[in-house]
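General statements about sequence and structure are easier to judge against a single worked case. No coordinates are needed to read the tokens, only the vocabulary itself. The sequence in question and its structure tokens are set out directly beneath this paragraph.
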Amino acid sequence: MPSFPAPAERAQTLQSLIGYIFNDPNRAMEALVAAGVHMPGLINRTDGHKQLALVGDAVLRMILALDGYEARKGREFTNSILSTKAGNTYIAQAGRNLGLDKLVIVNPAQAGMVADKVMASAVEAIIGAVFMDSDGSVESVRPVLATLGLDWPA
């Protein structure tokens, strides 16, 4: 049976990969825990990173919409970017490209395999965790989006 890094070690690796140092490392660990994983004393949510993913999805969409507005792009173009870059398939691939799939803690029944939907939720949760950890700073999230390739196209 393969050994996996401890949650704190995964959180530390996450920080290195995304270029953001968490004030509260527990947020980073929460972002890496998929729904259905029971980690008493570490993560006190039964839905894993789902709440953070909800926040992260909203933050990603907001930043892309703001950037579209600032770039003076029309609604159709902005909606096209939102459909692509805020879509689960694109987000999941962005996470895999950075190696985040090796950090996500999944239900033991998944045998270490991170499904696309779980990967996308984890990436959204990471975005949400950065936003929450930085007291709602959009400017703290922007470099993380750039690292993930989820920022507004140049």
Q: What stands out?
A: The mean pLDDT is 90. Residues 50-154 form a domain with the Ribonuclease iii, N-terminal Endonuclease Domain; Chain A fold (CATH 1.10.1520.10). Helices lie at 7-18, 25-31, 50-70, 75-85, 88-98, 116-133, 138-148. The chain is about 60% helix and 0% strand.
